[in-house]
Amino acid sequence: MEQTLILIKPSAVIRCLIGDVISRIQHKGLIITGMKMMQLDEKICREHYAHLVDRPFFPDLVRSMTRTPIIAMVVKGLEAVRVVRDMTGATKGRNAAPGTLRGDFCMSGQENIVHASDSVENAEIEIARFFSQGEIFDYTNDSFKYLYAPDEVVFNL
Ligand code: UDP
Ligand code: MG
């Protein structure tokens, strides 16, 4: 089953929104398989945001992402990558649809409270960037029969 990476950014940590983000994810039916608090540095920001290093706002982005620790989470579910991207909303909070995390909790394009992997391929790369194998837990099967139909997942009880 698909897993994806979510980072609860410093803008959410400092505004005490950690619990709101986690509760949205859990209420949706996504299963948290890994979670920790981490202090990012410039090196990991340059890797994680490699597509943006040449943009003029990149130094501000690094400052933003390193201002406080972040919460890194791996979550699991059917089509989890797309589901979490849809829940995240557009990059700029003030353009993000109501009902999305960014749409409900922020105004900014930079201070936009969460990161979510944008493809299955990138999710695998990003999960490996932030988590070792031993930090991801497979305890999930018991809940599947309450979350999915038998033809959607294999109940391995
Ligand atoms: N960002 C920014 N200014 C911009 C575009 C992006 O500060 O003009 C920041 C913002 O925090 C965003 C992150 O860089 O979440 C990654 O940008 P991307 O285009 O990958 O957006 P996302 O996938 O986070 O929606
Ligand atoms: Mg992105």
What does this structure look like?
The structure is a single chain. With 157 residues, the chain is α+β, with helices and mostly antiparallel strands. It is built from 8 helices and 4 strands; from the N terminus they run βααβααβααβαα. It has helices spanning 10-14, 18-28, 42-48, 58-66, 80-88, 101-105, 120-130, 141-147; strands spanning 3-8, 31-38, 70-76, 114-116. The protein has a 4-stranded antiparallel beta sheet. The chain is globular. The model has no long low-confidence stretch (mean pLDDT 96). Bound molecules: uridine-5'-diphosphate (UDP) and magnesium ion (MG). Residues 49, 52, 57, 61, 91, 109-110, 112, 115, 118 line the site of uridine-5'-diphosphate.
Short description:
By secondary structure, this protein is an alpha+beta fold. It has helices at 10-14, 18-28, 42-48, 58-66, 80-88, 101-105, 120-130, 141-147; strands at 3-8, 31-38, 70-76, 114-116. The mean pLDDT is 96.
Look up the CATH topology.
Alpha-Beta Plaits
Task: Give the helix/strand class.
Answer: alpha+beta
Tell me the number of strands. 4
- The multimeric state of the shown protein is single chain
Biggest sheet statistics:
4 strands, antiparallel
- Uncertain segments of ≥5 residues (pLDDT<50)? none
- Series of H and E elements: EHHEHHEHHEHH
Q: State the helical fraction.
A: 40-55%
